[in-house]
Amino acid sequence: MKGVTVIRHPLVQHNLTRLRDERTEPHEFRQVLSEVAALMIYEATRDFGTEIVSVRTPLAQTTGRRLRREVVLVPILRAGLGMLESILQLIPRARVGFIGLKRQEATLAAQFYHKSLPEDLRAYEVLLIDPMLATGGSLSAALHLLKEHRARIAQVRLVNLVAAPEGIRRVQKQFRGLRIFTAAVDARLDQRGFILPGLGDAGDRLFGI
């Protein structure tokens, strides 16, 4: 699918299988999800802009590169927390915003319960993090909020572990040019809006409740 990068690295796919397994307990699920997030972020940040800078080593003057823009990580609560820490270890200077959303079971509509973001996101690279892209309702609401904070969609990367075709189509229709990075595009959604085959409710499996 155009605009979607499926990360097929063997370690990503191996660990995705462990996450899908219903026998994987919460403590292992947390560890493996964190490991997968770190692997995926290399691909998601591959085309970050850099600029040449001068630096002196202990032996000589030379040049190197640094990121042109600051980075903001935005996990969707609560499941996105499972991917945050390992990404922060790779980008320790990143700022962190939070978006809390819950899905109404009857209508599947997304409802905010927490928002914490920089007021103006124009100068940042934004990584929007959520293990699941199912109906696209929650992530669509989150992307609208990012735009309200003046984020440019061209500078937003959506990082998901598993995505459904229905959710991909929804967010791509609403947000032209959005780049999506995922470990798998699964078959479809069931009648409750869960991804099939998926891996169940990522938040429940992370925290055991």
Outline the structure in words:
The structure is a single chain. The chain has 209 residues and is an alpha/beta fold. The chain has one domain: Rossmann fold (3-Layer(aba) Sandwich), CATH 3.40.50.2020. It contains six helices and 13 strands. The strands form three sheets. Strands 1, 4, 5, 6, 7, 8, 9, 10 and 11 form a nine-stranded mixed beta sheet that branches. The chain has a two-stranded antiparallel sheet with strand order 2-3. A two-stranded antiparallel sheet has the order 12-13. Helix 5 links the parallel strand 10 and strand 11. Helix 1 runs antiparallel to helix 2. The radius of gyration is 17 Å and the shape is globular. The mean pLDDT is 94.
Question: What is shown here, in short?
Answer:
With 209 residues, the protein is α/β, with parallel strands linked by helices.
